[in-house]
Design brief:
27% strand; Rossmann fold; 4-stranded antiparallel sheet; alpha/beta; single chain
Length: 233
């Protein structure tokens, strides 16, 4: 059985005058350990899928199974457990706390999950062992995103969700972050879903899902994904 399975998932947003169909009867499977890239224009439904898998929103209809758990049927307490124990999330804008040091920004995950990896070891893994006492405003964009990745991974998640993690970065920092995400995916066999506008990133993916107007218009696997260091755009 697939690690993630969406079956006939739709998501509608309603106002008094307009109903917007963000996702339209989407079904897909993602296997454990896959590096998946979801591509599409703004408004195509990319972030909606990520939010539904991350239990940050609920589908209007359909079923979402993650690691044999039907998250569409969980109560709030069980959803909190799912987010704490299964997920790591990396956002575009880092969401670091400016008055906490780099190390403290990672250690706050202990408030969510008691059993976390060693924060200092995680900083070493993302190449920031010399920045543990620095503050977010002293970091570059690329360094800030590395801290955000370390914070997500310190919980030892089975599933890493990345929402446009390079969207605010320049070319070189984008290459570094994508390389790091791919390396961590392979090292920890951690299912990784990357939402992006960047078509080039599809070349490193195990599986590519292309969305348009809330529907999957293309889904394929790469038999021989290239290395991130060989990416150009």
């Amino acid at each position: 059985m697939a690690f993630i399975n969406l079956t006939n998932v739709s998501k509608l947003y309603k106002t008094k005058q307009v109903t917007t169909k963000a996702l339209d009867n989407v079904s897909l499977e993602i296997n454990e350990g896959e590096f998946v890239v979801i591509i599409g224009d703004s408004g195509s439904g990319k972030t909606t899928i990520l939010n539904l898998i991350g239990a940050l929103d609920k589908p209007t209809s359909g079923e979402i199974i993650v690691d044999n758990l039907d998250i569409t049927k969980l109560n709030n307490n069980k959803l909190n457990e799912y987010r704490a124990n299964t997920l790591g999330i990396v956002f575009q804008n880092y969401n670091l706390i400016n008055n906490l040091s780099v190390l403290e920004n990672i250690m706050i995950m202990k408030d969510i999950k008691k059993d976390i990896s060693d924060p200092k070891s995680m900083l070493t893994e993302v190449g920031l062992s010399d920045k543990e006492n620095a503050f977010p405003l002293e970091l570059s964009g690329g360094q800030s995103q590395r801290v955000a990745i370390a914070r997500a991974l310190v919980k030892k998640p089975k599933l890493l969700l990345c929402d446009e993690p390079t969207g605010a970065l320049d070319y070189e920092n984008s290459r570094h972050i994508i390389s790091l995400l791919k390396e961590l995916n392979e090292k920890h066999n951690m299912t990784t879903i990357l939402v992006t506008h960047n078509q080039a990133f599809t070349k490193i993916a195990d599986k590519v899902i292309e969305l348009k107007s809330g529907q999957i218009v293309k889904l394929y696997t790469n038999d021989n994904p290239i290395k991130p260091k060989d990416l150009e755009w």
